[in-house]
Design a protein that fits this description.
Blueprint (H helix, E strand, L loop, with lengths): L2 H8 L21 E6 L3 H7 L2 H16 L4 E6 L6 H5 L6 H7 L12 E5 L10 H7 L4 E7 L1 H13 L5 E9 L3 H14 L3 E2 L4 H5 L2
Parallel strand pairs: 1-2, 1-4, 2-3, 4-5, 5-6
């Protein structure tokens, strides 16, 4: 499947000649990290379909089979912006801790888990340090929401200079219009979108 054509159809774009200058060829190095953004209970229960969870589990399995490090990003609810917390029902600390724990359908015992205080996983966290210590040469992203924390993380990640890609089947958002429009933009500007089945061939290029 041609990803650019597919995303154009999802956005009802018929003429995208103005985007021809963008290089959307994906590249993943020999030592990528898989960064799983906000697969926490509150987000997956509200916005992730069963298909997204299944495909994301396959992504994790692919990473493990290739010994790619996996980093889980969740929310530091104790340091979050008060305005974002006020939009949600009042919860006890115990309820908040459970809401922002990584979905139990994923095994994280072997992995690094980082809690972020803002939208970008790079902001005020040790993600950069972890990636450097792991010897990572590229980043594979999955998670939610496409228009929020995924976009913020991918955009900031672009400034780090590592090649990066987004996995089509493993990125999700409650607003599908925002989902497809942001995937289109990110694909051209910051991180080519790839299918899950493409990952292994790309790393062998």
């Amino acid at each position: 499947m041609n990803i650019t054509d597919y995303l154009a159809r999802k956005n009802s774009i018929t003429d995208y000649s103005q985007y021809a200058a963008y290089d959307t060829r994906p590249h993943v190095g020999t030592r990528p990290a898989v960064v799983m953004i906000d697969f926490y209970n509150l987000g997956t229960s509200q916005e992730a379909t069963d298909a997204v969870i299944t495909q994301s589990q396959q992504l994790v399995q692919t990473a493990r089979s290739h010994s790619w490090p996996i980093i889980w990003i969740t929310r530091d609810w104790q340091q979050g912006l008060p305005s974002t917390l006020r939009r949600q029902p009042q919860r006890t600390d115990e309820q908040l801790a459970q809401a922002y724990a990584v979905d139990s359908r994923f095994d994280t015992q072997q992995d690094t888990v980082i809690a972020k205080p803002r939208a970008s996983a790079y902001h005020a966290t040790d993600l950069d340090t972890v990636l450097d210590q792991l010897g990572v040469d590229s980043v594979i992203y999955a998670g939610h929401s496409t228009a929020g924390c995924v976009r913020a993380t991918v955009t900031e990640g672009f400034t780090r200079g590592r090649p990066q890609v987004l996995v089509l089947e493993c990125v999700f958002c409650g607003d599908m219009r925002a989902h497809w429009s942001n995937l289109w933009d990110l694909h051209h500007r910051y991180a080519p979108v790839v299918q899950l089945e493409q990952l292994t061939p790309i790393t062998n290029m």
